[in-house]
Amino acid sequence: MPLLPSLYNVAFWLSRNPNDAEDLVQETFLKALRGFASFEPGSNFKAWIFRILRNSYLTSRTGLAAKRTVAIEDELSESGESGPAQVPEAAIDRLTPETTLLQMADRAALQAAMEILPPPLLEVILLCDVEEMKYREIAATLEIPIGTVMSRIARARAALRTALTAQQRSPREFRA
Amino acid sequence: MTDHLSHTILNALVDGELSEGQLASTNQHLAGCPSCTSNALYQCLLKSATAKAGQRYTPPAHLQEQLARLGSQTDSRSQTSNLGTASIPSSQSMWGFGLLGWATAAVLLVASVTITLVQRTNQRAEMASAEHAALVTEVFDQHIATLANNMPLQVVSTDRHTVKPWFQGKIPFSFNLPQNLPSDTTLDGANLTYMHNQPVAQLLYSIGRHRASVFLRQRLDAAEANQLPTERSGFHVMGFGTNDLEAVAVSDVDPVRLDELVRAIRHAQTGDQQQPK
Asked: Best interface-test mutation with B: which of A28, A40, A43, A128 has the largest number of B CBs within 10 A?
């Protein structure tokens, strides 16, 4: 089961709970076994099984709760690039290579920043950066247009950057 | 240098999603822009750090065992059904048993091939429908963005002899623009845009006070048929395909008038006898 670690990792990130993550992975495997005939040979198996995982998550208790809590926020900030800049240019210019490296080296800080991402942004960043999927594969997995994938990735990274910058300014306060 | 690289371009750069042309122009920009270079470096570091930080949870050993059991139960169920077929009373002659086995196998094979073909056909129809929905969404979004941004078009001209040559070297296909447009319809200009990572010519027309976008792209899949028109939020989407091109038009104008424009453009490509109204 080569994809088990990936599926479990993404399931845990989305559900934030080990029991729910296990249930999600089991449900995914069962659905995949039952529906294997629907898998098109030669197409992307990883995208196919992640789509099953994601659909299982959306209909799970945590998925339904997340949908209810983030839907409005997601709609409001769907403007993507055409909306206001989420990271002030001045903040970008103040970063030196040293501070950047320090920020990135703090894995816990980045994980804390990822934890506060809304699920629609978290899932694209997991599929893109952790699972190294191409935009086309992510679009197929999440059943959204590529343009939406691109705007969500931009918003997710901007949000991570904002969170990391905030931590850098007041690390104790942020982690308290 | 006043125009910095957008977040989308920077993200596509670090994700390895830029086309050759985009990559060359981005590299050229980065060579002369320290701000964007610093930004690109940050995005690159963020991506690599996120990849590491995201690998956080490992599956417990018992989950692997449970899943292995689940798999073996499914296997054993299918094996049991196979054994059930094979365990025919031994009093029958081996010849008869063999014949029956082969006949059963042949029937099962035909049945499974039929089921698979039906499932594939259904799945292809579902995929085509999903692709169609995604295309409509992208066309719709691009048209709205063009109108909403209030940005000047990349080529502004009512002259088809100016608009068409502008695309030379920018797109890997060519198209014709109609000489005679339906009444009260004018060409406003065009944009080079991208859909599904493919370069697309977006032609903008005015039909009375309404605006219409016509997207032309190279046809990749000959099996795709004319599944349009569609309506969404008061906008009409319709299209056509030729051997080489696929065209999709979107506008909030009366569908009859949009159809006239679509037919004029189609006529310009194919030169068929069906004259536009």
From this structure: A128
- Judged against a pLDDT cut of 50, whether residue A93 lies above it is answered with no
pLDDT per residue as tens digits for the range A13-58: 999 889 989 999 998 988 888 877 777 776 788 888 899 998 888 8
Q: Which helix (H) or strand (E) holds B157?
A: none
- In angstroms, the separation between the Cα of residue B88 and the nearest Cα of chain A is 28
Of A160, A41, A57, A44, whose CA–CA distance to A109 is shortest?
Answer: A160
Give the DSSP H/E element, type plus range, for residue B188.
strand B185-195
Whether B39 and A29 lie within 8 Å, measured CB to CB:
no
pTM, rounded to two decimals = 0.51
Scan for tokens 């029991």, then name that residue. A19
pLDDT at B4: 86
**pLDDT over 70 (residue A151):** yes
Amino acid at B274: Q
Percent of chain A with pLDDT over 90: 28
Is the domain defined by A1-76 classed in CATH 1.10.1740.10?
A: yes
Domain boundaries, chain A: 1-76, 82-176
Q: Model ipTM?
A: 0.80
C-alpha B33/C-alpha B27 separation (Å) is 10
Give B129-270's CATH code, choosing from 3.30.200.100, 3.90.226.10, 3.40.50.2300, 3.40.50.720: 3.30.200.100
- Chain A's closest residue to B121, CA to CA, is A38
Backbone conformation region of residue B175, classed left if phi is above 0, alpha if psi is from -120 to 50, else beta = beta
Of B35, B46, B53, the CB nearest to A161: B46
